[in-house]
Predict the structure.
Amino acid sequence: MISPLFAGMLFVYLYRKLESKMRFKLKQIVFFLYLFTGHAQVQQEINPPTNIKSIIFKGPTEDQFPVVQLGEKMKLEFDDLTANEQDYYYKIIHCDYDWTPSQLLKSQYLVGMDNQRIIDYENSYTTLQPYSNYRLTLPNENVRFKVSGNYMLEIYNSIGELQFSRRFVIYRDLVQVGGVVRRSRDFNYLNEKQVVQFSINTAGFPVVNPKKEVKVAVVQNHFWPTALYNIVPQFTLGQELIYRYDKETSFFGGNEFLNFDTKDLRVTNFAISRIELGEVYNHYLFENIFRQDEPYTYFPDINGDFLIRTLQGEDVSREAEYTKIHFSLPYTSDIGLDNVYVIGKFNNYTIEEENKMRFNEEAGRMELDLLMKQGFYNYKYIIEREDGSIDLNVVSGNFHFTENNYLILVYYRDFGDIYDSIIGIGSVNSRNITN
């Protein structure tokens, strides 16, 4: 990548050499160089084509968003429904605090080389829907990580087409982070919002100018679209940075996720009304309801996540079946002409045609069927308004009682550094929310 300094020197040299009629063209060229060097593109997670399903990406914990210390292992797993044992390759991109690619060269953040083929894969065994299951462990014998920070993992096919990408973070445990979740003090959102208040103890770590050197991101349930950034310390108390905001660190509480379990193919339960066998098993869920005006009810969930499991085999990765799950939601005036989607970590909260509900005029309800691997799933309904805005909780409602998990990431960039490292993390839960 051309540095802004080099581009400027090149401009001055050529500008003096050229005739005046050529100088206007040169100014245009340098303008585009400036755009290229000064405005790096934010890395967004890319969702896979329809043949790739059940992307599992986790570190040492069960949460399907890897937050690992430098040197710890993380695992990626996914299925290809074409079952052709295709070749897939992985690349790794280091990103800054704002998820733009950092200025580090690959040799500065990786030991070894990426762009390697995923060699650990097997075909499904005795399943109605055939598939190939792929597994990747990082770090491995080909590549290790040198520095902490934000990362993006990209998966490509054999002809170099990007199939999907997923975020992960690597941190070093250099500062201590503690926090609590409180009820909002804003009377407009007293019963709907939760506030994350926390502190960062920098004892033993040299922070000279915390407002410039330290940055923080707060993420609810590993859902990045609602993450909060650019939060400066409210004040400093000795070696502690204090963040006791109300509005600046508040989140809508949402509601507990809906869920179903298909680990046993042939048995109905509290969420599944009936089962039919066609080309694959069909699981029809009970019709869900709008919960925004219903009293809050605590029902343990896994905050949008999912877990692949089956009672029909021992190797979950290869023996779990794919079944067609049928969702339904009554049509009401709250929906109007808006679009309704079913989302969860199982589809990375994506909004696409595949998970868009259709109106069944005969039944008077919204319906959707999705092909999903056996397991326990959390899901929710969201609405896309005609103006393109997304309403995450119009169907489920917002309650300050809702159990949510909050991840606090502490980034650091010293004077002269060219990337943002992560020097500590914190995790707080709203289960014991206080006023």
Notes: The radius of gyration is 24 Å.
